[in-house]
Specification:
Layout lengths: L4 H7 L2 H20 L2 H16 L11 E9 L2 E6 L3 E5 L14 E7 L2 E6 L1 H5 L10 E6 L3 E7 L1 E9 L9 E2 L2 E2 L3 E4 L5 E3 L1 H6 L10
């Protein structure tokens, strides 16, 4: 028994088939608009994109992880290997007869920590508008605290982008500087700072 017209309409979605046909015609027209040379260029560009190797991240021995700090108007950074923590300035007890850069000692969780104002040591004026913070430095253990006006973020710096430090920068002796970055950030030499016996109290002996 032959199907009626109504039954055929229910079986086939003529509008959907027509729409697919239109789409196929449009796609064919677009293909015809692209010349053979253009098609080759497109395929070549796709091949180059697939062949591109992502830029490799620098090795750990090529970068330096530093904490950015500020003393007065100068921006410094120091290798995070030498930083134990950032400590809030509390009660500091003066030490009679100490050098002018020795602010005194403070109790840091039951341990006596000497606090130094290296702004004086470096010849950098303190910023009276800032409440200083203590940057606790050391290698295996905390050795001393260093007053800084501000503590900023931790960043990485490429070692090959650190230029040789000038002879003197705002009173900072060159021996305490590892170098300077392109944007004029001074990199302190943590090894030299922690090896300078003048920065330790006599009781350390």
């Amino acid at each position: 028994m032959m199907a009626t017209d109504n039954q055929q309409s229910e079986k086939f979605d003529w509008s959907a088939i027509k729409q697919r046909f239109i789409c196929l015609m449009e796609a064919a027209a677009q293909c015809e608009e692209v010349t053979e040379e253009q098609a080759d260029a497109i395929m070549a560009e796709r091949a180059r994109a697939l062949a591109r190797v992502p830029i490799a991240s620098p090795d750990s021995d090529e970068i330096l992880e530093v904490m950015v700090i500020r003393m007065a108007q100068e921006r410094f950074a120091i290798d995070t290997r030498f930083i134990h923590e950032v400590y809030r300035v509390g009660d500091i007890t003066p030490v009679p007869g100490g050098p002018d850069f020795l602010v005194g000692v403070t109790n840091m969780r039951g341990e006596v920590l000497s606090v130094l104002d290296l702004r004086n040591f470096f010849g950098i004026p303190a910023d009276p508008k800032k409440r200083p913070q203590i940057l606790v430095l050391g290698t295996d253990r905390p050795e001393f605290g260093m007053l800084v006006d501000e503590v900023h973020e931790v960043i990485t710096v490429r070692i090959d982008e650190i230029a040789e430090a000038p002879g003197s920068v705002q009173g900072v002796s060159r021996e305490y500087l590892r170098g300077v970055t392109e944007d004029a950030m001074l990199i302190l030499n943590g090894d030299v700072l922690l090896a300078d016996e003048r920065l330790y109290m006599d009781e350390r002996e």
